[in-house]
């Protein structure tokens, strides 16, 4: 086996690995786009996950206008709390409804 054959074999390996990497990158981007576009039609959304240990975590989910906190272990899942989704509070940059132009600023 000569030097040229080894070079061709290594070049082929690098080419195959590059094609696999590009395919993986493309599939991940496509998956993210599909998830983003279908998020508005889903009734159940996973908002956040907090890992507490190797097999324990807490999930914050939203289902039909309700938020739920769920504890997950290797053996079970348990609802920890549930409350309605709060309306979005006005930001500091937006004027409050109680303040008008004629009132003096404090």
Task: Produce a short descriptive summary.
This protein has 106 residues and is α+β, with helices and mostly antiparallel strands.
How would you explain this protein's 3D organization?
This protein is α+β, with helices and mostly antiparallel strands. The chain has 2 domains: about 1-40; about 45-85. Helices cover about 35% and strands about 30% of the residues. It contains 1 helix and 4 strands. A 4-stranded antiparallel β-sheet has the order 1-2-3-4, with no helix packed on it. A hairpin with a 2-residue loop joins strand 2 and strand 3.
Uncertain residue segments: 96-106
Helix fraction, binned, reads 25-40%
Beta percentage is 25-35%
What is the 3D shape? elongated
Question: What count of structural domains?
Answer: 2
Compute the CA-based radius of gyration: 26 Å
| Biggest sheet features | 4 strands, antiparallel
Number of contiguous helices:
1
Helix- and strand-based class? alpha+beta
Task: Tell me how many strands there are.
Answer: 4
Distance between the termini: 87 Å
What is the average per-residue confidence, as pLDDT, rounded to a whole number? 82
Order of H and E elements: HEEEE
Reconstruct the topology from this structure.
Blueprint: H1 3-38, E1 44-51, E2 57-63, E3 66-72, E4 77-84
Antiparallel strand pairs: 1-2, 2-3, 3-4
Record keyword descriptors for this entry.
disordered C terminus, four-stranded antiparallel β-sheet, 34% helix, alpha+beta, 1 helix, elongated, 106 residues, 2 domains
């Amino acid at each position: 086996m000569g030097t040229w054959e080894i070079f061709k074999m290594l070049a082929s390996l690098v080419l195959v690995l590059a094609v696999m990497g590009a395919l993986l990158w493309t599939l991940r981007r496509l998956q993210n786009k599909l998830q983003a576009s279908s998020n508005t039609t889903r009734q159940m959304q996973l908002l956040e996950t907090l890992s507490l240990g190797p097999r324990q975590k807490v999930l914050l989910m939203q289902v039909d206008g309700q938020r739920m906190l769920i504890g997950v272990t290797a053996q079970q899942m348990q609802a920890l709390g549930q409350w309605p989704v709060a309306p979005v509070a006005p930001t500091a940059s937006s004027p409050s409804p109680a303040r008008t132009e004629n009132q003096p600023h404090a």
